[in-house]
Amino acid sequence: MKITLVKKILADGSPCKKCADVLDKLENSGQISRIDEIVIADERNPDSTGMQLAKTLEVDRAPFFIVEDDAGNTEVYTVYMKFVKEVLDQKTEESDELQEIMSNEDLDFL
Known about the structure:
The protein is α+β, with helices and mostly antiparallel strands.
């Protein structure tokens, strides 16, 4: 399995708030070791790898995870808690999942 994290850089050069939050969670939990590649979706460069992946995969928000299994199947996760639960097999609280899904203030659209 290969896991790619796509995080966004805003037009002013700063990381998106949600991307920074997810990266912190991955690092603090030790889950960052499960991420094979981190790709940047740079608003200043529509040809950046992350922006191209978002376009190809029809993803409109960041951060997102691309999970490729050994059979070549690809799944995209735009909700961190769902990714943690389904891919990393970590226990999550349903309330945390719902809060992340319903919380629009941290969303950063591509």
